[in-house]
Amino acid sequence: MDMPTLRTERLILRKFTENDLEALFRIYSDVVANEFLPWFPLKTMEDARTFYNGWFDQEHLSRYAICLKKDDVPIGYVNVSTNECYDFGYGLRKEFWHQGIATEAGRAVIEQLRKNGIPYITATHDVNNPRSGGVMRKLGMSYQYSYQEQWQPKNISVIFRMYQLNLDENTNRVYKGYWNQSSVHFVEDGI
Fold first, then answer.
1. Which residues are registered as beta bridge partners of 124?
2. Angle at the Cα of 35 from the Cα atoms of 30 and 39, rounded to 5 degrees
3. Helix H or strand E segment including 158
4. pTM of the model
5. How far is CA 151 from CA 156, 180, 188, in A?
6. Chain-wide mean pLDDT for the chain?
7. Which residues contact 182 (CB under 8 A, 6 or more apart)?
8. Would you state the pLDDT for residue 2?
9. What is the DSSP string of 71-107?
């Protein structure tokens, strides 16, 4: 997937590099910021290197570093899988929460995905993390359904809400992959 550097009013969105390992460690070692993510928080810089080498080299994943223009140091990320779910995800260090940064970064990446011809994106959030759903709605995504999944490696049962944004002319498309994979799925009223 084409991943040019993107610029917004406050941000630079670019690829992570090996020079970002210290910033990567700060993002992924924060217990609060990673509470609703599948992996355990990183404990050491060596963990960060292993994470970088494994996670960032995945063939079907594009990941942008979210950096403030003032210093170009990563404070978070936006990622998109290029397999059929086109899963869209994001995370920020907690001291940057509630400033509209995830929404600003997400909008820029979504515009690039449109240019790249990606037909739609999906995003999920743990029902216990409704603020993430708020970001999804601000990005124009719509709730589709909820489903249960045994999340690894934490090995916990989670109810997820799945949102979707169609980027092409097919406004009625709903990705059913998560629905079909889970024996527990339903549509919540009032979401």
1. 162
2. 85
3. strand 156-166
4. 0.93
5. 5, 16, 21
6. 93
7. 147, 148, 149
8. 74
9. T--EEEEEEEE-STT-BEEEEE-GGGTTSSHHHHHHH
Residues 6+ apart with CB under 8 A from 29: 41, 42, 43, 47, 48
Mean pLDDT for the stretch of residues 18-28: 95
Q: Which residue has the tokens 């759903």?
A: 133
Residue 139 burial (10 A CB sphere; 0-12, 13-18, 19+): buried
* Residue bearing tokens 């359904």: 145
Q: Are 115 and 121 in contact (CB under 8 A)?
A: no
Res 51: pLDDT: 85
Q: Which two tokens stand for residue 77?
A: 């990320």
Please give the pLDDT value at position 56.
64
Question: What does DSSP assign to residue 9?
Answer: S
Element (H, E) at 24: helix 21-29
Q: Provide the 8-state DSSP code for 41.
A: P
